[in-house]
Amino acid sequence: MNWNDRLADTRKGLRNLNGAIPEAASAFGGLGKAVKEGGTLDFKTKELIALGISICIRCEPCLSLHIAALVRVGVTREEISDVLAMSIQMGGGPAMMYAAKALECYDELAA
Q1: What is the enclosing helix (H) or strand (E) of 18?
Q2: Counting Cβ atoms within 10 Å, is residue 79 exposed (0-12), middle (13-18) or buried (19+)?
Q3: Counting CB atoms within 10 angstroms of each CB, which of 3, 9, 93, 102 has the fewest?
Q4: 83-101 per-position pLDDT tens digit
Q5: SS3 of residue 49 by DSSP
Q6: What is the phi-psi region of residue 92: left when phi exceeds 0, alpha when psi lies from -120 to 50, beta otherwise?
Q7: In order of start, what are the domains of the chain with their CATH numbers?
């Protein structure tokens, strides 16, 4: 399965979950909006941080969602690579495996 398909499956699963728990999903969505729109860091920086966390906690669906958001705002492969290096430094060998997945995802979604 390619990354576009994985991303579509993740979004489909989230829509299904949101339908089952609309109040909780709405509250979580509100938190996400408040965090991404408020504060001093810009959206791209916050998404780069979220990507690093996704790699370190080994959440493949999360990394695909955050890379998709980063591609939309024009992140470069070099910027992604800096985040991958930092994630590997913080997360060790397991983060290296997910960093490889993240770069593969970026390359596909950015193409």
Answers
A1: helix 3-20
A2: middle
A3: 93
A4: 999 999 999 999 999 999 9
A5: helix
A6: left
A7: 3-110 (1.20.1290.10)
